[in-house]
């Protein structure tokens, strides 16, 4: 949380973390999740499923019901896309939207039951009572009807591919922080010099040293 707050100059109130081991259990506990699956994504998922002993996916389309293992594969695959991790994060955002859509048909009592079941599978700084309170408000106020906005960071114009000992993105974090602040708050408190030299500029020019805000 400190790293994200420092790099992007935003305030995070809480966090929820689910690792790959518990990911499958979470999806299965809610009865699976419906997601859009393209044909090439299905092929890549089945290739990995064959190697790892998972159940094959038999269909593709705009609304495909995935169990926990299949949803995990959906969120993990990336080598089938020309843009690699960008499309992987797109699928992960679609997964989150699918989880929100899943709440449309549950009651408050069901939400409390699900929270009590799932809390052992996640790591969070929220108490069980806080999660139940949020879930109750979300259902009563129909938060699932709110428009979901997504943003890929680092933005394409603020990053460059770099391959040394490993493949990484060189990122202009100050410019990205402005983009994220505007997306969340509608404005930014960051001012950048027109003559500044970014991390991307430094790498492209082959220079070493520090960058200027």
Note poorly predicted spans.
none
Structural class: mainly alpha
Number of strands: 6
Radius of gyration: 20 Å
So what's the overall shape? Answer: globular
Question: What is the beta-strand fraction?
Answer: 5-15%
What share of residues is helical?
40-55%
Largest sheet: 2 strands, antiparallel
The tally of helices reads 9
Show the helix and strand layout.
Layout: H1 2-8, E1 16-17, H2 20-29, E2 33-37, H3 39-52, E3 61-66, H4 68-76, H5 85-102, H6 108-118, E4 123-124, H7 128-140, E5 159-163, E6 167-171, H8 173-185, H9 199-205
Antiparallel strand pairs: 1-4, 2-3, 5-6
Report on this structure.
The strands form three sheets. A two-stranded antiparallel ribbon has the order 1-4. The protein has a two-stranded antiparallel sheet with strand order 2-3. A two-stranded antiparallel ribbon has the order 5-6. 14% of the residues are buried. The mean pLDDT is 88. It is built from nine helices and six strands. The chain has helices spanning 2-8, 20-29, 39-52, 68-76, 85-102, 108-118, 128-140, 173-185, 199-205, and strands at 16-17, 33-37, 61-66, 123-124, 159-163, 167-171.
In summary, what is this structure?
By secondary structure, the protein is mainly α. It contains 9 helices and 6 strands; from the N terminus they run H-E-H-E-H-E-H-H-H-E-H-E-E-H-H.
Tags for this entry?
6 strands; mainly alpha; 213 residues; 48% helix; two-stranded antiparallel ribbon; 9 helices
